[in-house]
Write a structure and sequence with these properties.
Layout: E1 2-5, E2 23-25, H1 39-46, E3 65-73, E4 83-92, E5 95-105, E6 110-111, H2 118-144
Antiparallel strand pairs: 1-2, 3-4, 4-5, 5-6
Length: 145
Amino acid sequence: MPIEKLESGSWLHVGRLPLGCGWSGDCTAPGHEGETPSQEELQEFCNLGYAEHCGRLPQERAWDSVRFSARTVAAGNNIAADRIQVRYVCERKHLPAEHGVLEFDAGAARCFDPHRDNRVQRMAECYVALYVEKRKPQELTQAAS
């Protein structure tokens, strides 16, 4: 369960991580809830998905990894404020096991209809926070042009 950005990671391509950067947090694997993974576990397993060699990984699980993408949808006739649409795909054995769209208020970063699994919801929130953070410099540059 991601809690805060991990500034001390040493991934080769940090922007390619499923949540856009590394995160520290707590384990949610059955029997290990609330445990804090080591730096090595965060580096090698938690932030990548497909953590087959992690000793905490349950044999029975709905998915191995969750992938996200986002886009901003401008306010229109039926929409009061800009929204961020987050598409997610939960993968099991490298195949889609579940997918959907979560919508967030772009200003408040509040989800309109949260995912039923708190882990997926929290990951989506982290992804949106980073998405908004990365878009601010682009928006300032465009406004100045």
